User: Fold UPF0102 protein GCM10009038_32340 from Salinicola rhizosphaerae.
Amino acid sequence: MATTATSARHRGQAIEAATATWLSERGLELVTRNHHAKGGEIDLIMRDGDCLVFVEVRHRRDAAYGHPLETVTPAKQKRIVKAARFYLHSQRLSCACRFDVVGVTGTAPDLVFDWIRAAFDAY
Assistant:
């Protein structure tokens, strides 16, 4: 029997995969998923033309306790930026970048996606 942590991990992976597909249908191209770096992880790295997009995916079954977009705190943003810098350095990339957040509510197959392009800046 799967543990709660394992179930949550699988559910998270399924939500990220659905989000990657949803974004691809809107013109972005998937580069990689779940990029781990010192101090953080980037859920999705995608291309939007010449721009590299670091995507944070947040999910809640419903918004009864707040929308998932509200969970991307300044501390979380800082970890994402740090991981993005590590990725750019390790890949020897110098290109335009942005940080998007996708809030997902519902349960599969009835998911609602709220996409904020350029949700925050690197600081």
The chain is about 30% helix and 40% strand. The chain has one domain: 4-120. The chain has a mean pLDDT of 92. The radius of gyration is 14 Å.
